[in-house]
Amino acid sequence: MAKVTVMDWERRLLFTDGRFVRVLEPGRHRYQRRRSRLLTVDMRKRATLVPGQELLTADGVTVKVSVLVAWRVTDPHAFLTASANAEGDLYVAAQIAVRDAVAAMSFDDVLADRAGLSTGLADAVTAQLDGLGIELVAATVKDLMLPGELRRAQTETLLARERGKAELEHARAEAASLRTLANAARLLQEHPALLQLRTIQAAASPGTTVVLTPDPSYAPR
């Protein structure tokens, strides 16, 4: 008889004469070395990255999207026996799910709502994992990359938008200034005495020179 210690974060599958016997839980166990084989499954949470793949949006624009999938094993026996490569099946399921998500959105919608790509992604992946002993924790779009020409066009669009905002604010400031001058001119026209009062105020300021133009209609006697 042989002994084996199973750690808290793992499970050991015991096969005797090629047949599955049981899952060894954390702790110390005995087994027949000559007739048995132990396979180890890590039960801790894992992360699988699906690198950027070029995908077509609903309106035919190509974008490059990568996906990060967090998952863990819930059934070690199914994980090892239901598929020759359960993690590979998960990888393919994530690829298909993000492809379908991008294909259902227009390019403008993808740019405006990047988080929308992740919505429903986990459910779509989970639907492909039935019987594999895997629990999907999360599936999130990690990176969204645009082709070089689209990146330049987007940058130019943003710059043009910011220039337009600056020009609009400048025009508003000029319009406000003109309205102020027009109101002042109308007020002086309606009340000429205000101009004299303003002149007196200006003359009272230190260093101010006031030039008075004589009234041509005035003739000294």
Account of the protein in words:
The protein has seven helices and eight strands. It has three domains: 2-42, no CATH class; 46-146, Band 7 domain (Tetrahydropterin Synthase, Chain A, 2-Layer Sandwich); 152-197. The chain has helices at residues 76-81, 86-103, 107-112, 115-118, 121-126, 148-190, 193-204; strands spanning 2-6, 10-16, 19-24, 27-31, 36-42, 46-56, 62-73, 134-145. It is 43% helix and 29% strand. The chain has 221 residues and is of the alpha+beta class. Strand 2 and strand 3 (19-24) form a beta hairpin. The chain has a three-stranded antiparallel β-sheet. The protein has a three-stranded antiparallel β-sheet with strand order 6-7-8. Strands 1-4 form a two-stranded antiparallel sheet. This is Slipin family protein. It holds the Pfam family Band_7. Residues 1-158 form the Band domain.
Features:
single chain; 221 residues; alpha+beta; Tetrahydropterin Synthase, Chain A; 3 domains; 3-stranded antiparallel β-sheet; 8 strands; 43% helix; rod-shaped; Stomatin_HflK_fam; Slipin family protein; Band-7_stomatin-like; Band_7/SPFH_dom_sf
Q: What kind of sheet is the major sheet?
A: 3 strands, antiparallel
Kindly report the oligomeric state of this protein: single chain
By secondary-structure content and strand pairing, the structural class works out as: alpha+beta
Question: What would you say the CATH architecture of the largest domain is?
Answer: 2-Layer Sandwich
* Contiguous uncertain segments of 5+ residues: none
N-end to C-end Cα span: 140 Å
Q: Report the total helices.
A: 7
CATH fold-type name of the largest domain: Tetrahydropterin Synthase, Chain A
Radius of gyration: 39 Å
Number-wise, the strands total 8
CATH classification class of the largest domain: Alpha Beta
The SSE order reads: EEEEEEEHHHHHEHH
- How would you name the CATH homologous superfamily of the largest domain? Band 7 domain
How would you describe the shape? rod-shaped
Question: What is the helix fraction of residues, given as a range?
Answer: 40-55%
Number of domains: 3
Strand residue percentage: 25-35%
InterPro entries: Band-7_stomatin-like (IPR043202), Band_7 (IPR001107), Band_7/SPFH_dom_sf (IPR036013), Stomatin_HflK_fam (IPR001972)
Family: Belongs to the band 7/mec-2 family.
Domain Band: 1-158
Protein name: Slipin family protein
